[in-house]
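Onboarding guide, step 5: your first structure request.
Type a short instruction followed by the sequence, for example:

Predict the 3D structure of this protein.
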Amino acid sequence: MVLEEAIRRAIDECIAEDILAEFLRAHRNEVEKIMNLDFTHERQLELTAREEYNAGVQQGIDQGIKQGIKQGIKQGIKQGIEQERKHTDEQRLRAEAAEARIKILEEALAAK
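The system replies with structure tokens like these:
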């Protein structure tokens, strides 16, 4: 109702200031309807643009999340492989050290 009231006031002011007064008196209802439709159409365009913008933002966020998850998984797998290699290397070194100790002990027993 605010829009219709603003249109009525604008028409009244134009008539009061003798701006297109005869035309507005003769075609007031048509002018009100056209102005209302024009503003309604503009408002609809604004709303549509805002909805499309918001949809684009959401799509960007969704895409960013997916990319972040993929990157996180890749990085996690890479870190897991590196940790497994370190662990395997540590186990190999322990096994080699144990074998060396066993060999020393065997040599010591053989010398007795």
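Each response can be followed by summary notes, for example: The chain is about 95% helix and 0% strand.
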